[in-house]
């Protein structure tokens, strides 16, 4: 609702405006009434209206003087409507000079007044739209400026510095790096909303799984600033968790007392992000830790060859132990997360290469865990260690199957699996994925070895079990069909008659004990 202030020294005129016009219908509400211009000015200072409807001739301060005084006090956005019972051209001319183009003659005609409200509402809505566009453009300009200030300061012009810096006049600043898992749009919406509720807070540097946030605060000292940013980050964390954002980690850089030094806070936030990788905490402040030099020595990758050798030739226990020992060494040495990523990536690609060399399908091993490591999707070192170990054990199991296949044994392995699981529903594609083999190759080689396809063998096994149950139990044919793996009784009946040349009830009558 747009706020309206009515100004007239005649009570009956005020009452008429209130009763004759359906203000709410057109999106307006009367927030106050005044008897003269001076009283109206005081009320405008307390609750700035969108529209003032004022009489011209009033004691103390008339309507035109009210408009003039409001403009002097910078109430530029307020719209005015002049009402008067006097058809005096001089008044109209003065009103036009003051920028007032809306004029109603007393007694006010309700239809004329409501037509005017429609026009005024459209004018206010258009002004709001233009204001939103300007605010959005200004905010985007500030975000681009802050991003450049962090990463590319030399490309900021002196004009931009002089125009934008004075508008960001806070005494303390900090950069926050927010890492998360989840939908980027949903997460960004929550963070943006929290930032909008905070004075001088901007979301910048969006990536697939992280956001950068610049936070400014006017404070007397660093202690006050630190308490304020702790309160803000806790509120941000709570909002994100409440809205379902997963696996949140927030690294808060050092606070700086000049916006020009924001890059220092950015760099310290990056360092804090490395600590989070080795830490179970989800929120960490640069102020709370002693920043150290991280180990980027490639020698820390020396265990890759040993682990890859165990992947081929070692035992499961030796492989798990070697991976755990390597990660314990990373923690002790404070190896940079980048080194840990290179280490893990080398092992994954070596495992996939071995798979390919033995004729397997590498893509079958590329599960979510492996992709998470390759895409740096893990937030801490323990998670990387667990997932790399899981991948390596899975890879080792697959390599054993590939070797058996090379010796001609994969068909027997599949046949044994089918013998155990024929009641279940599966496809050749699913079997091929389970045994890391091409589905076409599996189907053809199985047919050559056993003279029947995999699915045909499944039906044979089901029929043998169905015949046994018909002979030895009193179960109905439909119950038996479901028990041996058929969802459709007609499907079961077709296969049964194909193999026995009789219906189940006939078979039972002939062969039942």
Structure explained in plain terms:
The chain is of the alpha/beta class and 513 residues long. Helices cover 58% and strands 12% of the residues. The chain has 21 helices and ten strands. The protein has helices spanning 11-20, 37-46, 63-72, 89-97, 110-151, 158-164, 184-196, 222-242, 262-277, 303-313, 316-333, 337-357, 368-374, 381-406, 410-421, 428-434, 439-450, 454-472, 477-483, 489-500, 504-511, and strands at 2-7, 28-34, 51-55, 79-84, 102-105, 172-181, 201-204, 210-217, 246-252, 283-285. The strands form two sheets. A five-stranded parallel beta sheet has the order 2-1-3-4-5, with helices on both faces. A five-stranded mixed beta sheet has the order 7-8-6-9-10, sandwiched between helices. Helix 4 (89-97) links the parallel strand 4 (79-84) and strand 5 (102-105). Helix 10 (303-313) packs antiparallel against helix 11 (316-333). The longest helix is centred in the first third of the chain and has 42 residues, at 110-151. It is elongated, with a radius of gyration of 39 Å. The model has no long low-confidence stretch (mean pLDDT 84).
User: How many whole angstroms does the radius of gyration measure?
Assistant: 39 Å
- Strand percentage: 5-15%
Helix amount, in percent?
Answer: 55-70%
Mean pLDDT: 84
Straight-line N-to-C gap:
87 Å
Task: Please report the number of helical segments.
Answer: 21
Please provide the count of β strands: 10
Strand order of the largest sheet: 2-1-3-4-5
Shape: elongated
**Class by alpha and beta content:** alpha/beta
Largest sheet: 5 strands, parallel
- Spans of 5+ residues with little confidence (pLDDT < 50)? none
Protein name: Two-component system response regulator YesN
Pfam family, one: HTH_18
Main location: cytoplasm
Coiled coil: 110-140
């Amino acid at each position: 609702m747009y706020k309206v202030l009515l100004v007239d020294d005649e009570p009956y005129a005020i009452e008429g405006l209130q009763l004759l016009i359906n203000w709410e219908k057109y999106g307006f509400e009367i927030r106050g009434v005044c008897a003269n211009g001076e009283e109206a000015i005081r009320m405008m200072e307390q609750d700035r209206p969108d529209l003032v409807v004022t009489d011209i001739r009033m004691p103390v301060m008339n309507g035109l003087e009210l408009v003039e005084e409001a403009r002097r006090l910078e109430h530029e956005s307020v719209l005015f409507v002049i009402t008067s019972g006097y058809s005096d051209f001089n008044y109209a001319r003065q009103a036009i000079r003051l920028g007032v183009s809306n004029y109603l003659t007393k007694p006010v005609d309700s239809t004329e007044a409501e037509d005017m409200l429609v026009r005024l509402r459209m004018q206010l809505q258009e002004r709001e739209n233009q204001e939103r566009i300007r605010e959005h453009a200004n905010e985007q300009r500030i975000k681009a400026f802050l991003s450049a200030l962090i990463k590319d300061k030399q490309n900021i012009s002196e004009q931009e510095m002089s125009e934008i810096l004075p508008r960001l006049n806070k005494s303390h600043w900090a950069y926050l790096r927010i890492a998360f898992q989840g939908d980027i749009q949903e997460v960004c919406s929550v963070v943006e909303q929290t930032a909008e509720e905070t004075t001088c807070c901007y979301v910048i540097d969006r990536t697939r799984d992280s956001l950068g946030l610049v936070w400014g605060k006017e404070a007397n000292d660093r202690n006050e600033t630190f308490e304020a940013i702790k309160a803000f980050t806790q509120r941000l964390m709570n909002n994100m968790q409440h809205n379902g954002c997963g696996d949140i980690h927030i690294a808060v850089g050092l606070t700086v007392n000049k916006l020009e030094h924001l890059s220092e806070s950015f760099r310290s936030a990056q360092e804090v992000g490395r600590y989070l990788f080795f830490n179970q905490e989800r929120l960490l402040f640069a102020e709370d830790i002693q920043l150290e030099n991280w180990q980027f020595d490639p020698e820390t990758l020396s265990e890759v060859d040993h682990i890859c050798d165990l992947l081929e030739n070692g035992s499961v226990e030796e492989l798990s132990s070697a991976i755990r020992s390597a990660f314990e060494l990373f923690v002790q040495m404070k190896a940079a997360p980048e080194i840990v990523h290179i280490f893990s990536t080398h092992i994954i690609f070596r495992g996939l290469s071995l798979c390919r060399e033995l004729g397997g399908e590498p893509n079958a091993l590329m599960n979510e865990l492996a992709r998470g490591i390759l895409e740096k999707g893990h937030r801490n070192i323990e998670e990387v260690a667990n997932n790399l170990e899981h991948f390596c054990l899975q890879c080792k199991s697959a390599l054993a199957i590939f070797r058996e296949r090379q010796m001609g044994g994969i068909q027997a392995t599949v046949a044994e699996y089918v013998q155990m699981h024929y009641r279940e529903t599966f496809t050749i594609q699913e079997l091929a994925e389970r045994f890391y083999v091409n589905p076409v190759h599996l189907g053809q080689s199985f047919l050559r070895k056993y003279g029947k396809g995999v699915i045909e063998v499944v039906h044979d096994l089901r029929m043998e079990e169905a015949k046994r149950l018909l002979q030895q139990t009193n179960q109905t044919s439909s119950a038996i069909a479901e028990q041996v793996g058929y969802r459709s009784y007609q499907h079961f009946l077709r296969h049964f008659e194909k193999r026995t040349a009789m219906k189940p009830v006939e078979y039972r009558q002939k062969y039942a004990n």
